[in-house]
Amino acid sequence: MTRLQGSNQNRTVLVIGTLIAVVLIALALFAVRSRPATQGNATNFNLAGQPVLGQENAPVTLVVFEDFKCPNCRRFEEEFLPEIRSKYIDTGKAKLVSMNFPFLAESARLPVDDSKLAAQAVECAFVQGGSEAYDRMKQILFRAQGSESEVWATKNRLKDLAGSVEGLDQAKFATCLDNDETVAAVDADEKQAQDADVGGTPSIYVNGKLVDSYDATSVSAAIDAALK
User: Fold this and answer.
1) What is the rounded CA–CA span in Å between residue 21 and residue 169?
2) Whether this model's pTM surpasses 0.85
3) Which residues are CB-contacts of 200 (< 8 A; sequence separation ≥ 6)?
4) Does domain 42-227 have CATH number 3.40.50.2300?
């Protein structure tokens, strides 16, 4: 009797162990499938319909994730990007694709998620005026950047700032922002960032490979390596 019970117990343990293994394998497969496709150490982002700075057929692609409340993003845009733009983007060697990763307001538990509102604003500019309007609005937002610990990118403030973007229909922009018409586009960018385990902003990928720093020297070295 004891042996029979022991045998049944062993079978039960074996069945339970097998079921647990199956569940773990299934979860692992789901996690892999839910992430962006990778080739080696490179991540393949879905860049369809994203704002692009530079020539579409440039051999090197920079994907830059930013939050408009991020001081380091402002530093990248104002201190390092001009050199990168002059050497690589304006010469047709590389193009830059902008992606939103608005997380700072939520991380700081601010009463208004103005990280996301700012991202929606540049997307509203993009809807109207394409990549050029997106880039102009982006530069204006970074110049107007307030503290990352305070709400500054309110809808009213963003509408005021949009008035400096030449060519924008301000009424259409206001409607777009008030109705949260671009929230889906921002959410899609954020999901790509999360799926790729983007750890912060700015995060810069050169041909799908994460650059270890956002300074011009590091980004230039990554572009040069990709061009070889």
Assistant:
1) 58
2) no
3) none
4) no
